[in-house]
Write a structure and sequence with these properties.
By secondary structure, the protein is of the alpha/beta class. It has two domains: 13-348, LCP protein (Aminopeptidase, 3-Layer(aba) Sandwich); 364-469, Alpha-Beta Plaits (2-Layer Sandwich). It is built from 17 helices and 24 strands. It has a seven-stranded mixed beta sheet with strand order 1-12-7-2-3-4-13. Strands 18, 19, 20, 21, 22 and 23 form a six-stranded mixed beta sheet that branches. A three-stranded antiparallel beta sheet has the order 16-15-24. The longest helix has 19 residues, at 258-276. The two termini are 35 Å apart. Mean pLDDT is 76; it is low at 1-19, 23-39, 116-120 and 465-506.
Length: 518
């Protein structure tokens, strides 16, 4: 049969994407070629709930004894890293899902997920940071799209889901080396310190849902997709393990493709967490035992993850306090890499610090530090507002207030006005925020001093009573700001086409009981 141009372009794009992945995939003879997606947060919650619910030590030993431990977190320089840790005693757990084959998986096991003729692959298709504040009263699942085009330390730019496999290859086939490079990549991207690491296989996800029993979901419209196999009516459905797998795999037919699949994963995990926290699970030792066995048999964690300690931190967690969010993105363009078209997710790097801080809150070091005197505060102003002369004008206003202001500069256009500062400069940053109402203070490990970055939000320096009537910078005689410096090395050659993506909602999304999605 003759292929049309669209089919040929799609085939070339698939070959280009596979060329980015360092590990080859074996031929698949399954009926539906669906993407491999593994939500794993439920596995972590199960382990924590066992201890939180006060089950006998034998139950916990049964769980922890089946967990594989790897050296996934690189050694820390405690002095430097403590200063760079944005959220202090809060915990950030990197949850990773792929379709690696657990040791001892049988042909019958693989048949459950339609991959019995597939050798598996180690590109990580699900990456979620589970952020747990120090008080443990809430939790946030921060999703990182697998196709995010990001710097991978030592490897230039690549898709985020290639970092694990690249690290494993560099480490001579060692899973721990892959985990360390992925952790490093996510830390560099988000600015968060990753405290722990958990990896679960596709088979593990299936087994958890099978042991837990049907999970209820609700859709605003009926869906039917031949690629993932999902076929559900509008309204409430109870999903078995196979249906759940299809539900979280779907991206074809969704308006934003992989980005909407992230929403599916977040929603399903929230519904699953509700079921895990229900009396029907916690008060049923037989059912809970099956869930424990399913999770621990396919879970790999860092060597230092202490489920007892973390469970104590989460003892007051309730389903309505579990929030989901996806890192800010600009769209899903197709770019040219080495002459081939590759579909990616374009991350909004400029918005990342404000997004992360909106989820984790201001560091205690900032809130506990008094503002410094303007005369002892040095800073520079950069213009990301897109309005000519804004940085020069703001610099004049700050200097008039007694600040020691350097030469103004330019920055990439950004929405939010921020005050970026290195750890140890909290007092200076707070002094600037006090005279620039609406600016968001952001600790930046890469910063060498305090910088006021003007955004498109119109936030401005208030220089006196007259200025209080207006939030806009005075631009009567705009000076010229210097040109912005070049940003990333090894940038994509050319953006071909793409789909715009809306900005994430501040604080993320909480899915109430009975909530429906598209």
């Amino acid at each position: 049969m003759r292929r049309g141009r669209g089919s040929l372009r799609a085939a070339r794009a698939r070959r280009a994407e596979e060329a980015l992945a360092p590990t080859p995939r074996h031929a698949r003879r399954r009926r539906r070629p669906v993407p491999r997606v593994v939500p794993v947060a439920a596995g972590v919650l199960v382990g924590l709930l066992v201890v939180t619910a006060g089950y006998a030590a034998t139950s916990y030993q049964r769980f922890s004894g089946g967990v594989t431990r790897v050296d996934a977190i690189s050694p820390r320089d405690e002095g430097t890293d403590e200063e760079a840790d944005l959220d202090g005693t809060a915990q950030n757990i990197l949850l990773v899902g792929d379709d690696h084959r657990p040791v001892g998986a049988t042909a019958e096991d693989l048949a459950k997920i339609s991959t019995q003729d597939d050798g598996g692959a180690e590109n990580t298709d699900t990456m979620i940071v589970l952020h747990v504040p120090a008080d443990g009263a809430s939790a946030t699942m921060i999703s990182f799209p697998r196709d995010s085009w990001v710097p991978v330390p030592g490897h230039g730019e690549n898709k985020l889901n290639a970092a694990f496999a690249l690290g494993k290859r560099d480490g001579g086939g060692d899973d721990a080396a892959g985990a360390r490079l992925l952790v490093q990549t996510v830390e560099q991207l988000s600015g968060l310190r990753i405290d722990h690491y958990v990896r679960v296989s596709l088979l593990g996800f299936y087994d958890v849902v099978e042991a837990l029993g049907p999970v209820e979901v609700c859709l605003n419209q009926a869906v039917k997709d031949r690629w993932s196999g999902v076929d559900l009516p509008a309204g409430v459905s109870s999903l078995d393990a196979s249906q759940a797998l299809a539900f979280v795999r779907q991206r074809h037919g969704l308006p934003r493709g992989d980005l909407d699949r992230q929403v599916r994963q977040q929603y399903f995990l929230s519904m699953e967490a509700r079921q895990l926290l229900s009396a029907g699970t916690l008060l049923n030792p037989v059912k809970l035992g099956r869930v424990l066995d399913a999770v621990s048999g396919s879970m790999e964690t860092d060597a230092d993850l202490d489920f007892v300690q973390l469970a104590g931190q989460l003892r007051h967690l309730r389903p309505d306090a579990i929030t989901s969010a996806t890192v800010p993105v600009l769209g899903t363009p197709t770019i040219r890499v080495g002459g081939s078209a590759v579909s990616i997710v374009q991350v909004d790097f400029a918005a990342m610090p404000v997004f992360v801080q909106g989820l984790v809150g201001l560091p205690a070091a900032y809130t506990d530090t008094p503002a410094a005197a303007p005369s002892s505060t040095q800073l520079v102003v950069t213009n990301g507002s897109g309005r000519g002369g804004a940085a020069a004008e703001a610099s004049k206003g700050l200097a008039a207030l007694g600040f020691d202001v350097g030469e103004p500069g330019s920055a990439d256009v950004t929405t939010t006005t921020t005050v970026r500062y290195p750890a140890g400069s909290e007092g200076a940053a707070k002094a600037v925020v006090e005279v620039v109402p609406g600016a968001v203070p952001v600790v930046d490990p890469s910063a060498t001093g305090v910088t006021l970055v003007l955004g498109t939000d119109g936030v401005a320096v208030r220089t006196g009573a007259d200025a209080a009537a207006s939030d806009a910078p005075v631009l009567d005689a705009p000076a010229s700001d210097p040109p912005a410096s070049s940003v990333p090395a090894a940038a994509p050659e050319e953006a071909v086409e793409g789909t715009p993506a809306p900005s994430p909602e501040p604080g993320g999304t909480t899915y109430a009981a009975g909530a429906c999605i598209n």
